[in-house]
Design goal:
There is one protein chain. The protein contains three helices and 24 strands. It is mainly β. The chain has one domain: Neuraminidase (6 Propeller). Strands 2, 3, 4, 22, 23 and 24 form a six-stranded antiparallel beta sheet that branches. Strands 1-8-7-6-5 form a five-stranded antiparallel beta sheet, with no helix packed on it.
Length: about 325
Amino acid sequence: MIRSAAAALAILASAIPAAHAVELTISAIPVTSFRGVGLDQPVDGLIWRGGIEMTSPDNTFGGLSGVAFTGPEQRIAMVSDRGNFVTGQLIYDDADRLFGFIGVNLEAIQNSRGAPLPRQFSRDAEAISTIMRNGVPAAVRVGFENLTRVADFELTNGVPGGAATEVAIPDWLTDTRTNESLEAVCIAPPASPIAGSTLLLTEGVVDDDGRHVAWLLGHNDKGPLRYESRPSVNPTDCAFLPNGDLLVLERGLAFLSFTMTLLRVPAAEVRPDNLMRGKVLLEASGGAVDNMESVSVHTAPNGETRIVLGSDNNFNDWQRNLLLEFALPE
């Protein structure tokens, strides 16, 4: 129940995308332990490197469903459930541990006519992946659910914006207009057998055997494939490692708390007409995680390959905006 006109106006304002970039103040609280493990210690198949919990006095910050590295010096772009890009720079200390998020701006995602997305049904951005051209970040590819679609946005100094360029996807996916349709979008790196192809992975679209339906967009590698998730969880994002192996982040609920699993699928298994299965790299539940919805891979300042997991707080005070970082031991 809305208890006052002022509260009603505040909720309405927070739901309307900004018409231009708005600077946000972000506080970052260090996260130094994970499942009782300290910094630089192994946890399952990864090494815990630390993270941050992000807060802001601005109620337009939150709902972060995807993260991508878009430029030098750890510049990132995130997408939100309310149709905004959130961009800025991750800051690392002398020990190469994440401790801040600075230069943060929020800007409305535009439609193909260059206007802010008009309705909440069209604003629900769930995934973002960076498009490389000649080895340089040049654009981002964004996946949306509810009004299910994929669109590209050009990068300027690591910041996405401008009018959307629609990307053709299969009719069956376009026609799946729910909040469990397109959940993950990731682009294969040069080392992958399907280099340059885009993987589209659904959350709630399953075949008769309960496998998640997926699709590959590419000139040479195009067509359907499926993904087998673990029991009681669904995929929420994907990212490729530099060698072409695929990471899939899964999320679920158990005993009124969130659970998450990160799996690694061999590069050779990501191909049309195949069933993808992964091996567990990381599992967690309870206070160690939140509503984990994003995964991204990047090179840390010290040259180490890092995996960043992010959470979507759904604009709830009792949930957190987390960025958790891990290293591969190889």
